[in-house]
Design goal:
- There is one protein chain.
- Helix content is 19%, strand content 33%.
- A hairpin with a 5-residue loop joins strand 1 and strand 2.
- The chain has one domain (2-216): START domain (Alpha-D-Glucose-1,6-Bisphosphate, Chain A, domain 4, 2-Layer Sandwich), CATH 3.30.530.20.
- The chain is α+β, with helices and mostly antiparallel strands.
- InterPro entries: StARD5/6, START-like_dom_sf, START_lipid-bd_dom.
- Keywords: Lipid transport, Lipid-binding, Transport.
- Residues 18-159 form the START domain.
- Pfam families: START.
Length: 221
């Protein structure tokens, strides 16, 4: 699995370091709490999307909400994740995981499963990274009643922002930076479906972390 997770981490690192080519397509709220941008992908014939914004919470608390571990909090707050399991723990930082999502929009979208190799990493400046990419694993063949999805390199950074102030005097707010992609054919359907949904601003104000997942943000077609 080493080449897979190294490639995913390297690609996500490149997205973070290279600010060129990103085009804004959506911001939520009057102050732009969450900004979504996109650029053409070098890996497939589609676009890479980025959602970013500041959460008024310590990086450690934000990380607890989103880190990909068995029994973690994401299945409790993210309605688009039905189940998450660790298929194989390669090391303390690397694991092979299976994620399932429920059907949506009156079953227009079928339940899906994703098998990824996942890397968790902490940098010297306190930044935390979760990077993932698709992998095949002998202990996790395709399951009935699920469509097997495929993830290109994607990930999430939790970046401390010292000096910006916080409600908590002992910690700094957190910049959450999420890079993700949409499957071919799904981008147009995504735009059509989300055009009928309420604007996500109220949800963003009440729960900022949720806004960083692609299912909760609408894009310009």
């Amino acid at each position: 699995c080493d080449p897979d997770w190294w490639a995913a981490a390297a690609k996500i690192g490149q997205y973070r370091q290279d600010p060129s080519g990103w085009r804004g397509c959506r911001s939520t709220g009057t102050r732009g709490e969450v900004v979504v941008s996109w650029r053409p992908s070098a890996e497939f014939s589609g676009n890479v999307y980025r959602a970013e914004g500041t959460v008024a919470a310590c990086p450690e608390d934000v990380w607890e909400c989103i880190k990909p571990v068995a029994g973690g909090l994401r299945t409790k707050w993210d309605q688009n994740v039905k189940d998450f399991e660790v298929v194989e723990a390669v090391s303390d930082a690397v694991s092979v995981c299976r994620t399932t999502t429920p059907s949506a929009f009156v079953r227009i979208i079928s339940p899906r499963e994703f098998v990824d190799v996942v890397l968790m990493k902490q940098y010297e400046d306190g930044t935390m990274l979760s990077a993932a990419t698709n992998v095949e694993h002998p202990q996790c063949p395709p399951q009935p009643n699920f469509v097997r999805g495929l993830n290109y390199p994607c990930g999430c950074f939790c970046i401390p922002l010292p000096g910006l102030g916080s409600k908590c005097p002992c910690c700094s707010p957190t910049l959450v930076l999420r890079d993700f992609w949409l499957e071919e054919g799904w981008e147009k359907l995504h735009c059509i479906i989300l055009s009928f949904l309420p604007h996500p601003c109220n949800m963003v104000r009440h729960s900022p972390v949720l806004a960083f997942w692609s299912q909760h943000v609408s894009f310009n077609c």
